[in-house]
Amino acid sequence: MARKRKRWLILIAVVVIAAAAVAFAARTAANGNGKEEKGPEIPTLAAGIDDVQVVVREVGTVEPEVKVDIKSNLSGKVVDLPIRAGDVVKKGQLIARIEPDVNQAQDLLAVRNRVEAAQIGLEDAKQDYEAKRQLFENGLISVEVNREAETRYRQAQQALDEAREKSGLVEASGIPIGDNPRQVVNIFSPMAGVIIERPVELGETVTGSGSFNAGTVISTVADLGTMLVKAGINEVDIGKIHLGQESRVTLDAFPRVLFKGTISRIAPAARLDDQVKVFDVEIALEKLGVELRTGMTANLEIRGEIREQVLTVPVESVFVRGEEEMVYIQRETPLPKEMTETEDDDESAEDSEGEDQKSDEEKWRDDPRQDWRRWFEERRVVTGIASTTEVEVVEGLEEGEKVALADPSKPQEERS
What we know:
Layout: H1 2-30, E1 44-46, E2 48-71, E3 76-80, E4 88-89, E5 94-100, H2 102-137, H3 143-172, E6 185-188, E7 193-197, E8 205-206, E9 217-234, E10 246-251, E11 258-266, E12 271-273, E13 276-285, E14 297-314, E15 319-321, E16 324-330, H4 341-350, H5 360-366, E17 376-386, E18 390-395, E19 402-404, H6 412-415
Helix pairs in contact: 2-3
């Protein structure tokens, strides 16, 4: 009897195991022939605690704080050029001598001739006035004749003064008219410094600067004792910087040498640079090194506000949707591909509530393009400050949750 009962127990156990195996095989076959499902190939990273600091990086140029372009007031040929780039010059030192062209030489000659003509006219009027005054005192001429001679004398004095003033203005520009038959223009340095550029050569023709002409630059003199870095900051980053803010500067030529400085000037208006609006910013350097040379490329790093030990995610994991910021959180387990009978009954009962009331679990079943929702949850977040790589999350996310580094709602070809 006991042996018969034991046989029945073994038979029941075999039937139960067989039924379980059949059920398991059917379930795995329904889910893809027993293979593990794979979601979209999207990189993820867990939200963590870290420090976040606002950093603005830009490329600028090393330039002297004061530099002057030296030009000629007259057009002509360079007949003397005693300086070259790199020379140290003093204020008032001769930079170049320009021989004016024919038209301007004639104008200068006319200025000198007007002075000489005015002098001759004054001497003649003076002699005439003195003679007629003597006659008037002797009662030999009328008052009117004497007054006319006096008036002519005063007009001649005024004409000479005017001619001398015009001649003085010309000489003040570096053209010695009096003893200069060729009217050669002398160009002097307006300041002490170093010649950093000399774009013209001896014998070349230069254009004079005037109201409608910028003129040819003969040389550029600069004070290399005060150097700064100039850069154009994108309008997107201009709100992150302010006057007096500390900056770090490195040079492409000397990447291991670090220069410290502060923002000394921010332009009040933007300018257009290659279709991008930028604000010109100047960085005053604390110490000048022998490595600094005019025109060098400088890499700026301006550090701003910092938040310590806050929840952060990579910048590329936050997506803007209208006025909201969203992240896509990877689910620990994907949503089931098949609905249970209870879910099927619930969906039938809720069809009348409208599309807007559907959950993520329901949306992807109605639209194959929403299949990504099985693996990712779309969630709104509130962010704080951001660095170049990380952004602070103030609300909507927990530490350890994995966020997508690409938009899973887009097709694969649009993510790359």
